[in-house]
Design a protein that fits this description.
Length: 320
């Protein structure tokens, strides 16, 4: 999810209203203006400890289709003419994991949304198995509208609570090489996805030298605590990338090889070694220089990855 702009207008979608013991759910509303067709789905307001649940809002304007949980707060964006292109800056920055883990066997994603990362990885990691865990059936139901590939031998979308799913992964199961966490709802990042228990379960699910990448907001009250919890679980193998997508912060963590930890002096794995380089590149210089450097690094990694998959693709047959 992209960090929202501060000048977002108040939501104009129908609300669930409560009067005494009576709760009313207004019907969804579709509004069309020119070539713009907007679905204003019902919203559920937050009260006390109850988290807000907003039904997905799908808007199409020309060649652009967006997914949001509140009007103006874009969660995912797709170009209809190029559905696997990465449109949002924070999503492109998350793909820096490809530099840390260039040949993942299994990629596990928390949160489907409009499927931007899932589609991109499906195309550019043809040898990888991809599992996407999404809690909400109404989001999964939009997969055809956002051109998410159908389930097959190497790609599947699972409806489940990600925390429970990862915690229940058998100890003898195939480990995950890359774990992508981008599981937002309308109220922000669920506390369960930044808990110490969740990060410990992620660590157990990752293979040696496996990579965790997470998208968070810099102004999230949990941000500093989240970094501290990651440090407790992953040690010094944590790096963050800022200045590439407004208030979005992309955090990377690498599980150290147990054998290397025991040997002590053994060299780090590829992901751990490159994470150190990423931390130096992303954290140095003044803010404006750091932002420019990080954006260039993201662009270079994407160009390399796209070029690699293009070279590996079978040549097209010429028409007779």
């Amino acid at each position: 999810m992209a960090a929202p702009s501060p000048d977002i207008p108040p939501p104009d979608a129908p609300l669930v209203t409560t009067s005494g013991d009576i709760r009313t759910l207004d019907a969804p509303l579709v509004v069309a203006s020119g070539d713009i067709r907007t679905l204003h789905a019902p919203l559920v307001t937050t009260s006390g400890d109850i988290r807000t649940l907003h039904a997905p809002l799908v808007t199409t304007s020309g060649d652009i289709r967006t997914l949001a949980f509140r009007p103006g707060e874009v969660q995912s964006e797709m170009r209809l003419s190029r559905p696997d292109r990465l449109m949002l800056a924070y999503v492109r920055a998350m793909m820096l994991f490809a530099w840390l883990a260039p040949h993942p066997r299994h990629i596990l994603m928390v949160g489907l949304g409009g499927g931007s990362l899932a589609k991109f990885c499906h195309r550019h990691f043809p040898a990888s198995r991809i599992t996407v865990v999404e809690l909400r059936a109404d989001v999964i139901a939009l997969r055809e509208q956002f051109c998410v590939p159908p389930d097959d031998a190497r790609f599947k979308v699972v409806q489940a609570d990600a925390c429970a799913y990862i915690a229940a992964m058998p100890a003898n199961a195939e480990r995950v090489d890359v774990l992508v966490v981008d599981g937002f709802d309308a109220a922000g990042l669920p506390p369960a996805l930044v808990s110490s228990r969740f990060y410990a379960d992620c660590w157990r699910a990752l293979a040696d030298d496996g990579v965790l990448v997470a998208n968070v907001f810099s102004y999230d009250p949990q941000y500093r605590a989240m970094l501290g919890r990651l440090g407790l679980v992953f040690g010094a193998r944590v790096a963050r990338v800022a200045g590439v997508a407004g208030n979005n912060r992309i955090v990377f963590a690498v599980r150290a090889s147990l054998a290397r930890q025991q040997e002590g002096a053994a060299p780090p794995g590829l992901a751990a070694a490159r994470l150190g380089a990423l931390a130096r590149l992303a954290g140095g210089r003044r803010w404006w220089g750091r932002s420019l450097c990080n954006r260039m690094l993201v662009r270079l990694v994407l160009l390399w990855l796209i070029g690699r998959s293009a070279r590996a693709a079978p040549p097209r047959r010429q028409a007779m």
